[in-house]
Protein 1
Amino acid sequence: MVVKRRNWITHIILIVLAIVILFPIVWVVSTSLRRDNAAFSTKLFSSRLSLQNYKDLLFPEQNVLRLLKDIESITTNSLPYTDKPYDDLISKFNSDIEGLKKYSVETKSLLATTDKEYENIQKFITDNSKELIASLVENANLIKEKSKENKPDEEKLYVALNVLLKEGNLKERDIDDYFDLNKVKEFEKKWEDLFLNLSDNINKKENEIKTVENQINLLKKDLDFYQKEYTRMLNVIRESIYPQFLSFKDTLVVALDILKNSDSSVKVFVSESNEMEEFEKTRNYLKKLSNAKFTDEFSDLFEVIQRLNNLADEVLSVWKSFPDKSSSKYADFLSTIRLFNLKASKQLKESVDIINNFSDIVDNYLEKSNLLSALSKKLEEDKSEFEKLKSEYENKKLEINDAEKFVYSVILENKVKSFVSKIEKYSLPKDIRKTYFAIKSLRTSLNNYLSYIDDDVKRKELRVYFRNMDWVETYMNLEKRYETFSKNMKAFLEEFDKYVDSIEGIGPNAIRSAKNGIKIRISALSQLFPKIQSDYPVKIASNLSLASKLAVNLIDYLPLKGANPSLKVIDKKLFRIDQIWKEKTDHHLIRWILNSVIVAGLVAIITTLVNALAAYPFSRMRFRGRKYGIMSLLLIQMFPAIMYMVALYGFLSFLGRYIPFLGLNTLGGLIFVYLGGIAFNMYLIKGFYDTIPSSLEEAAMIDGATRWQTFWRIVLPLASPILAVVIILSFMGTFNEFVLARIILQDVEKYTYAVGLWTFSTGPFETEWGLFSAAALIGMAPMVILFLSMQKYLVGGLTKGSVKG
Amino acid sequence: MILIPPFLKYAGGDAMTRVWKFIGWILLALFNAFSIWGALFLFQKGFYELSITFFVLIVLIDFFIFNRKSYPFRYMIPAIILLFILVLYPIAFTIKTAFTNYGTGHIMTRQEVVDRLLTDPVYTYVPNDAKEYNYEVFVEFNGIEPTDDFKLIVITPNGDKYIMGEIKSIRVQAGKMLLGEANLKEIDDYNLIKEGDKIIAIVDEDKTYRYFYSPDDIDTAINEVFFKSKIGFPLLSKVEIVDFQGNRLSMRFSEDGTLRLKSIRHLYRLSLSEVVENGKNVVKTVLVNDITNKPLLEENGTFYDFDENGEKKPVMGYISYVGTKNFSQIFTDPTISGPFMKIFLWNFTYAALSVLFTFVIGLSFALVLNNNSLKGRSLYRTLLIIPWAIPAFISVLIWKNGFFNETYGIINKFIVSGLFNKESIQWMTNPFWAKVAVLIVNTWLGFPYMMTVSLGALQSIPDELYEAASIDGASKGQRFWKITFPLLMTTVAPLLIGSFAFNFNNFVNIYLLTSGGPAIPNTSTPAGATDILISYTYKLAFEAGRGQDFGFASAISILIFFIVAGISFVNFRISGSFEEVNR
């Protein structure tokens, strides 16, 4: 029948989709039960399951370190034991010591078990040595079979051998046994024809490129220097020389002006002076300057210099032709010139040097940069030529690729042969190290061969055969790790017992002394702490966890399954030992859940009662503001409630000063803030009231009941189903609230479950998936069960009232 | 005549009721007394808005109780109390804040800031012509141990000696004295024990203070550390000693590391100045820098001082009204408007796509499950509803931690690189993929709701319609588009809009999954690529990384309110919720 068949398909699709959609839940459940570190595991699921995460969260075990801390508190009579009488302290102390001894005994018996199982494994390996080696041989032979290649023609083969030898990939002794070295020599000529020239050229080009690159680097350094000098000089000229020249120009203009234009008939005595000779000298510098080379950037400077030159010429000519050499005019002129000489002669001389220097630098700079561009061009050419040669070489090599592959396959084949003949003599586990090194040497040959294989499938296949031999390495490491662990742990336990004895002896005295006000830290105790906190993780736990991991890996790798039960036992017992000894962080999950339940419960009950009251007049009475009351209630809900916190934060911190349980960082304050969300479910309750026939109330009123009595005695009991639903809805809503709780609560112990779980997903716990998922599941399960079991009622309320949040 | 409240007058007759009414009456009186006291107390402490809220509440409640006509409102009194304090007051506060610059750097009122600038020891300086006073410290000993109970003798440059009187606290913060003041007293008022000219002890009441330390007395150098750490620095450096001329002296560290008593001056003083404001000359109190004699500039709610080079330096900010700046900067400030528009658009896209995806998937499931001949429908329904049943924050954390983590997350580890051999997807650092992640999670969370709703709507469509249609020869597609979909939409459309409004403000999902990240570059506010308006607001107000800006956050939340209210208004129109109210 058609319909049936299609239903069948629908079922399959639905099931697949349901699995995909519910996968996060599956993941949470499976991860919470894993005892390996899921975040770092390469497997999605693991068979190493335990309830440890739940135990740690809900019923944390008083393991060794916790007991020791407890003993410390008892013996120093500090919190929480300050007020306990002496006898209680002694009995608690004795029970703690008892606990420590028990752990020591338990660890010893666990160790005895693992030691026995370890022996079993060794025995198993010894008993099955033949089979195990046979499996190695089989895999090696499979590699050999799979890596068989067709023999290429002789010429190609020997040319290829030559290439491999010359490139340094192979040594003569590597191929001595499998190929005729004489023949290789014979084909050397052929190789020379084909490759020698090319490879020589390539080498030459490579060297050339290197030299050019070196030259370019040197040049760049020089250019860098000139660049810096250039900018420096530029600055000097711009900032100091140019403005000086401008002022010189002005001085000369003034001098000329004095001589030419001013009209003075006062006679003065003018002594002979050599000012003008000096001036002529200065003028020569100017001449020199006007001949200097200038770049475009200095056209203005050049102009000034030209102008200065002209001016100086003019001054000289006017002076020479000046008639009255004893007028005050003449004297003024001379003193101006003197000043000019004083200022200018030295400056001009320096400027000439600087400008000459500058033009030198410019020349050098230009020269070098031209050189650089030439070299760069050459480098580019060289490089492209090099590439060409290289590709030519590669192409040629491509022709002998098969031959090279064949060479490596022959080498591999022979390596396998020698490997097989070697390990067939071995007996495990005695020769495990030798076996391991034999496998390791096989790996190099295999990898060389694999680099020539393009076929992914084949490559994978060969890798799988090789991986089938991995168990040798794993087993070898397990041996090493387990033996170190077992030895260290035994020594550690022996020492631990001594310490415990010492603590036990001194403890009661310390307690008595502490009770009398003199607190002694028991030295054995204070020495034992660092032993367990640092020695244990460094010397023991590291080996332990590795041994445990290797044991699990061995289950997968070992070709024979007989040892698996023993390996599993070892893994399990080692995990238990670690739980006893390692330092564990304290969690507050129970406290958080309790906080959440208190807060959500109170909020749900109070808001529901307030709502039930407030909804009544909206359903039964007619009054002004009824419509707007509901509308404004609906409107208020739309304001983003997070912003309330800005106002309420200050108010709460103020309130906390006078009413401590309502302040910030208190559950009371949080409850208070949550009560603001009352408007949410009123509509729902009002809707239900509407369905209760008012004839019931009318009858009661006729009998003399007041409005309040009809509400309290009749309407409210009738509405109890919807009230229950509303209580659950607001309980769930409050339980899920995160933001306000995060702002208000600061202490870890005061967190609600939502904030607490959030801390499990950040910071150092981000990768502690086991704890996180267990904590998530603990909070999630009751909620899901509640929701699903009350689906019928809740869904109606949720779809009618508000959307889930 | 005694005023009897109306509810007593008309009450029924028996004695028990009278007793109850009487108790109620007393409770009301107590409530009123307590609330008025509380309101006054709040007003005194500076919670003006809250105090007004209280007063309004008292008046309203009394009105409800005394006015017979407002009987229905008596049922709402508890709700109204909670609503006023926890909802209306915060809303009013938010609206007020939206027009101020309240936030980091602008925490105190102007008056508080002025007060602080005038008195805080931080804002004092030692003038160049400062006189240095010598001093001698006398300490009471507990056995051989010196205590921090001390007397101080101040020696003026002329050699006159005075004793420091009691310290009065002037400014206290959190129980710690910030600034104290003490007067000088004549030395003769005390009982002194002298050794020659030197005073070696002071006897006051039944305590003896022995000579302990003086900065220039080498014999007492051994006591210097104790004096500095127990008396000088923690206490005396915060005390100003006023001498008879009105000079203020205080302990300051000198270059050689000893505490010296120097005359100090406050950096700022009050003065009156004429300012032109709105075209009128107004006399205003201004703060003046005592060194430069220049008045402080007030701009944008901040006091600015000028240093020697005439450069403006902010001193302290206060809360001030900035008008509509918080709103207008959304459009005018390019470092805000760019990211804001991005957030705004993404907010709409996010809400719309969430509704679209959840509805399409939910409806598809509903159509499949609506088939009566399908066995185990309720089991499938229950299974598919589970994502809805799990508290949302738990699911989001699971997705974030286990699935979208870039290095360890199982999507990257097992699907992207494991199955398809691709490079890891940057779920948290690439804006596009972060958005995809947010949408995936939101769809997963939301489709069961849509499925349930659609299923309910589908079941209410009468079968006769389909029968009639199939008799008329309508195809399956026609039946869906012509009958199912229109009928479905009439019931589901309001819920879709409601869901849009909900997702528009779906803060928890965004915040827990990506925290709004990755950050948008080149902005002055903490905007992120997956931020929606509400998470952006939250970051502005509560994540102090770049400083809080309550003013701007309030402005945005008002904006959000109008958007959501607008959407909901449309929704009410469509669903006719108001008619229901009027029933």
Protein 2
Amino acid sequence: MRPERRLLFFVAAAAGFAAFLVWGLTGLPAFGHYRGPYGYLIDRLTVHYTHATGLVSAVNFFFRGFDTVGEEFILFVAATGLATVMRGLREEENEVSGGEAVSAGVSVPRTSDGVRTLALLLTGPTLLIGWWLTTHAQTDPSGGFQGGAVMATAVVLIYLAGEYLKLRRADPIVVTDSVEAVGAAGFAIVGLFGLVAGGTYLAEVLPLGKHIGAVNAGGTIPLISLCVGVEVMAAFLLVVSEFLGQTLVLKGALDS
Amino acid sequence: MRAPGTLDPLLPLVVVVPLLVAALLAALSALISQHRRVLDLVAIATSVAVSAMLVVLMARTAGGVAVYWFAGLHPRHGAAIGIDFAAGSLSCGLAALTAVLVTASMVFSWRYFETASTWFHSLMLVFLAGMVGFCLTGDIFDLFVWFEVMGVAAYALTAFRVEEKGPLQGAYNFAITNSVGAYLSLLGIGLIYARTGALNMAQIGRALGHGRPGSLVVVAFVLVLVGLITKGAIVPFHFWLADAHAVAPTPVCVLFSGVMVELGLYGVARVYWSVFGAGLGHRSAITAAFLALGILTALVGAFFSYRQRHLKRMLAFSTISHAGLFLVGFALLTPLGLAGAAAYVIGHGLVKAALFLCVGAVLHRLGSVDESRLHGRGRALKTTGVVFTLAALGLADLPPFATYLGAGWVGDSASSHGAPYVTAVVMISSILVGGAVLRVAGGVFYGLGDPPREDPRLRQGATEERSETSGDEAKVPLTMTLPPLVLVAAAAAIGLLPHLGSVLQHAALQVEDEAGYVKTVLGGAAVHHLSALSPKEPTAVRAIDLESGFGTAAGALLLALGGLYYRRLPGLKRLRPARVVADTFDRLQSGVVNDYLTWLVFGVACIGGALAFSLR
């Protein structure tokens, strides 16, 4: 289709679609009139089942834990798939340049001292916040997904403070791959403990802790949160490293 | 049979085992990536184990839907608090077919890829787990999660060989179109959650109950549908499929065509019967809408299939055509219609997988997938040629391939429910599709007739395929001839099974028994007498089924010979299909994702408008 025609066609179709959607939305309950019952049930049962007060994590890692296993593997496959595609592209670039890694000859401007100092100063606190979020799924609205992303940010800050290329020489990618996979497997293995010791997959097998809302409450929730945190951090780092590597290749191609 | 209340541990294991093995292979990649055969063996052993477990589950669930509550969270006062798997024998059977095809394509890959990193095996196993989870789940959000697992794995597998521009473009169109469809599905799930406060399919179905559906339910149904029929390649949501098939590695195409598309349509049936059916009131408008979509898809797919010279695209369009026929089987809302669709899915899945594997062998040996360039060059590939021809006949509904039973039952059920023209549609589309593939069989493997004119569009793409495999192997290895042979034999053997019809119809009835499903899932009760909207119909193979099967295959053969020899027949030399019309249609498949999305929005508006006016 020619772009102008497509635009006309799209506008007409989208108008029909929008009308249909709005017609459906009029059937929603009024704002603030949640009817339940799922939300109310979870609200009432969480503390009884888990001794955890981090309700969101209790939903993510216990009541709907199996969804989260799937979601974790979506992230795993997405990061892995991206890495596969990017590495394929990079190998191609390398072949073009005659086997030498293009990034070897790239002149990357030095990071300014201001940026490096700030990045260094922020690294510690960021890592701490990430760690806190990852390990406090059972007590507060936090958990491994958020925590993992923040911890990955801390590592990116280190990249920024040092020079990425120098760090890359140490090749963290192979390690990142493995760590990511271990994180993904971890959750699935915790579920197997449930099958072996508790009778059903993902069944609670650890003591719930005496005090409701304490750091040691929540049974498997903190353990699962940790696995998820590791997985998310590694997946983010993998993606960031691949993109940085790609940027260097593109830069190299532009320079030469 | 297990006592009621106990949970079958095989149900979670068929998903968890492939996931774990995938993660472990990736975790150990630094150690084992040098040992290619270890990877192959572990991956194949895993999918064989999953197939075996699913066959056991299929037998166990014949007596009733098996329910598994994760973390042991049984429902409280009839409301689900956790996630369940709720699998009948149809779900388990489809999942078993998936696992068998995954096994076949991994055996095929043994020699097909010169180098295969850990990624390929990990991605395949996660893809398998996603498809199996999608089949077995009883929770609509969980359905979406596994739908996305299989989606993301499929995008990555399409772009797996990325040395050329083609795979990335195909994967891009595939990912964008299917992701937009999936987001609309998620929006639909959100709407239905807002109304019912439930994610368990049985619970939503019960809450929507009977009576007038209201606007929200109609809109939620259509939105949930969009993601599923996009995956199911229903016109006008189908454009991504040919692009993805043309560029994906052949062993991956086996799974896309053999089961992934079918899973999308299984999802339609599952969501309809467990969630929306009662709420929408099973009115004839539903049947009419799905019949129209199915018939349109069957004919459009068949037409495009016949026009292709690119073998993988030809098979891809044939899948679209068959997807339309499967949707027709569901649209009748009868147990026999669904059973027919199931038989068709099994037969088609096996022969289509065999066809793709043969094309893979041709590509491996001769380095091309262009019908004109390959003309007569396949003579040396004797086994592959025979298997390809048999599979092509199976695709044309030749008895005893299970496809003829599927075609027959869908046609029978349609005739007795006021849609006698369905039989004609099934025959026409099977003749076109079978004719196209038999033309390839005759031309490529036996050098019959004249080579078709070169398709200018294929010239640039000809090298595209090289990257998959070197294309000049001296001999087709056993790992490439055996899997398709076994699959074709299985398609014929299944068609000969006694009682296949009654077993499948019973499985279909399990799906369509809405009240029984709710009782089993939420009440924990075993249901002994299945009852559905529409009663069972006789499944004995009738003479007319055999006749139309042989008739279709004969028609396809004639069409194939016509395609090969028409230039030698005096009167027919100038007879060309209306070129202008055909070219206009060809241009619709533009490869531009913006076009595809415009069609998608247009499709939603049309289906939505039609159902809004008829169900309101």
Protein 3
Amino acid sequence: MEQKEENKEIEKIGKMEEIQNSLKRIVKQILLEEEVEYVLGFEPGPLPLTAAPLFIESEDDIERLIWTDYCNLNLVKFLLEQPHTKKVGIILKNCEIHSLIVLINEKQIKREDVIIIGVPCDYGIIDLNKIKKIIGNSEIIKGSIEGTKIKILTHKEEQIINFDKILSDSCLFCKNKIPDEFDYQIEVSAKKQTPNSEELMKYQKIDEYQDVIEFEAKAAQERWNYFTSELEKCTLCMACRNACPLCYCKICFIDQNQPQWFDKNDDLSEKVLFHMTRALHLAGRCAGCDACSRACPEGVDIHLIYKKLRKSVRDRWNIEKVELGSKSVLGSYNNEDPQEFIMSEE
Amino acid sequence: MEGTGNQNQNSQDCFKVIPKEELKIFLERLNKEYKLILPTHKNKDKSKEKTKNNELIFDYVDVLNEEYEFPEYQNIRIAPKKFLFPQSEVLFSYEIEGNNIKIAEKGAEINNQIIFGIRNCDARSFKILDTFFSSGKYSDPYYFNKRNHTLLIGIACNEPMTTCFCTSVNGGPYSVEGFDAVLYELPEKYLFQIISPNGEKFKPYVESYSNASLEDLKLKDQNASHAREQIRVSLNLDNIEMELEGLYNHEIWQKIARTCLKCGACSYICPTCHCFDVQEKIEKTDIVGKSIGKRVRIWDTCQIPLFTLEASGHNPRAAGEKRTRQRIYHKFNYYLKNYDILGCVGCGRCIQVCPVNQDIRKTLVKVQEIAKNVQEGD
Amino acid sequence: MFGVGESPIGIASSPTEEDYLLFTVKKTGKVTSQLHSAKIGKKIGIRGPFGNGWPMQEAEGKNIVIIGGGFAFTTLRSLIVFILNSDNRKKFQNITIIYGCRNPGEFCYKSELSEWEKMNDIGVYLTIDRAHPNWDKKVGFVPTITKEVAPSPQNSLAFVCGPPIMIKYTLPVLRELGFTDPQIYLSLERRMKCGIGKCGRCNIGNKFVCIDGPVFSQAELNTLLSDE
């Protein structure tokens, strides 16, 4: 990135760099002291405001490690793909830690096999898809973060966009930004207060599910129109599924062909079938990291589907997030479980 | 070669001047004879303010009856491949009643059409698809049914994107390969040039326009060199086939594959990827036992394990690195072996869409580095 | 199968059996399962034939070693019936057949096999993976039995068709016996959708199994970028 320009920046950059430096120290310590195969982090991506997964295997790799507001993937996904012979270190944010907790609870990963380096978020992760929607058909030639704004240079003009327009949907409302479970944690000094942003503070004061509540209030037809207009853009490339650490079935129902559930046509009914079925498979499990939305090459807004599921879990079972060692919400029975879905007054 | 064509091709009367304000009229005249596929805003009911973030796509536009303004763009995000090779395409349909099967071949009448405003990368992608779909014993009738009725009018690329690397794969922003005719954009006007024998069909449409001035041609050449300078990444892929030959079992594929999600984003956005699946769809079954079905081909991707999974359970490309490798080898080795062309046009779309931000240019650089080391090590 | 899909199936009858086409189909996937539950008289569609066959001209005047495993024996049956046809038999020298299955019940063409076993001019070696009470023939995996039978590589060609694992372990045995790679022909299997080299999934290196194969000489496979 453009170091010189960014040095002018105030607290925000300083803080990110501080985090990045302490991460480098911690990773080095882990590589030296613990028997790890690698530590998972991010390196700069090929385009402005992009980051790519990095497998840090040796001290030489540490230099490439970055920590930014656009480390957009949930690295937990990459824990599942590889057979591990040793422990693995991983740098995670709180929502991602909760997705790892789900995997640990579901016995896909052993807690003792993972060294979690927890990083607190201040605002959250930038959703490049949102930026692309704002700047339309031009490409981002340069991008830099200035406090709670982002400066984008396109081929035609320079634009400054407020964070509230481009933060990932979950991040905007999120109130659990400090890691709940970790082996190493980055602590951010209280002195480095981030600049106030009224737009962002507004979201901190309202219900986490305000957007879902507003959407629920809409007429059925309006809701349906929204989903269909969004899902029509889907090309069934499976980037959302493949970016999700909780989608780990050896054979996904969509790929299953004996029997075949899904005829692969790119028509709306198939797209709705795919997204709704996937959503149901994530009910009570989704940790709300939004990696799926950010992975979508078409910028399909699917976050509301998953957020609605999380809201249902909160409303029915009073569960905000999955805790380590807890039983799965839908996989366990409790006498107090609400039953109205079996027999409804409506 | 660009800009070094013989006198004949570069003489002033080969370039007709279409003033920008007359482009619409030019399109209307074409539209009387041809269906037009044009860059247009996705959201049709657009207000002026909204057009900025209203995505541009290629679509059929009836300029005779619709409000249309030719937009500005670097390139269109989704390639026009889908007009000749749609994501799903009915091969034939059938009616089954008891043991009677009536097959209806899809014999839809194809209108002559023009894809207008494409860049050189996409024109060259059609050349690649033409080569592939006509190769071997069996030519693909579904593709050529449409292709044979399609003409390509391109616009030379004045502002390539940061992800473009066409000059590394035998293309260029001002290359005219693959076009039937091409426009060069100057401040107030376009210069129109016929490129292919098929493009001669456009002669009557441009005859009334004046010839380009020497000044115009100079400006065009300046734009060409400016455009080429915009492309910062330059790879020398002259030996890529041989370089890949020795790396088939190299650990590089495992290294690249481990950060890849194995989704189909890159294949589906790629203007040259052409692999497909064939599926059967029973549409309607009525009570009497009559059913109507169709056989459909649908884009597929070599990145998913199901692509090669056999019914027995055996999968020759079960491991992720074999799938990552397949994509690179198909484009940069097998294509050269089979057809003596590269299977990539350097449009950079895969770099733009990759959810994990992989860069095919970096992969190729890495391949070349390793190949060099392997060679020197020997 | 209309409404179900297509499946690539090798022809089990020989060109000498002019009146009909024989397909031997194992119930494995979606299409083959439907085929198995179809009633006699059910109308199905056939496209083809696609791809190549065994190199019969090259085989003339030579000894032929036929090695097969499980249900992959179908095109080998076609080959054997063709060779044993009275017009053709004299064109070929010694015939050795090694055919292995998991258990006695899995063999295809049992009555033909026992006829062939009775013939003097061909060697038939049937084997199963593990000993079984109703089995008095050979026991052992195909590679082991191949080693035991030890067909001579002199003026011979080996035609091999079977599951990937069988092929993998039979190849070194043949090489050890002195077979050179141009003498070994394999019939390979891949998932296919079109059969005409367009759908892109059955490639081995730059070749398509559906049009360039399924039969490849090991010498040719060596020149391809493949894991085989």
Protein 4
Amino acid sequence: MSELFPLKQVMGFALSIILTIIAAGVYFLDGISFPIIMTILLVTAFIQAGLQLVVFMHAGETDDKSAIYTNIYYALIIALVTIFGTLLCMIWGYL
Amino acid sequence: MKVDQSLPLEYSTEQNKNNILGFWVFLGAEIMLFGTLFAAYFVLADRTGSGPTGVEIFQITPVLIETFILLTSSFTIGLGINAMRKGNLKAMITFYVITLLLGLSFLGVEIYEFVHYAHIGAAITVSAFTSTLLTTLGTHGAHVTFGLVWGILIVYQLIKRGLTPETANKSFIFSLYWHFLDVVWIFIFSFVYLKGMI
């Protein structure tokens, strides 16, 4: 039975549950300032995304590892530049 | 067809390796797609016009249910791939079916949520906020719906053909897709719902 529930994946699942609870904490706890909330959310979200990628999607296990990571980093950079570039020219530039 | 026995079944042929890499490139494009949706949402989130704001319409309970359902389904499909690599077809199909049932319940809660929004005056045409919100959520929900259909066809092929290099490859690629949907949801959960509720 235990071979169907490998420790690595069970730990990965437990960690993602914990991170979700920490993130949800910003809603249930009062008196946290906005910058701290955003920091908590950013940290928990990106750790969770990395967890999925490495533990569950087996991104680093095969010969195509570097191609996979290059592709993901490239996509991530484009997405982040799109998001923050849009915020910069549509909102933050006019504060 | 050359089959390399030293590699997991889903990686065993040249075609299989290329399929998997090709799918990662597709997921890269999906990251950019959701990036543009998030960009639009963040800019327009405060443009509520005469409609309701995020704080007024978001409810924590269905959102938490959706999050835990999707996290669990991501875990069970991971166990499915583990069972596949151990050659245990029966356990693999069981995990895949559990995953699809969880996906279906996720969709049920999301549909309830959308009906509720429409009911309380937050339909897609009300304001810039509701249009970008429902477009972002809806694009994710449409991906889950497509994933359900795809997953059912995968399970059907597994039952019919058993574990071959092809079916293993298709199942692995489907698991990548499913995990990716969970990753997107984590960002929706954090930066649409939680950020919108404080």
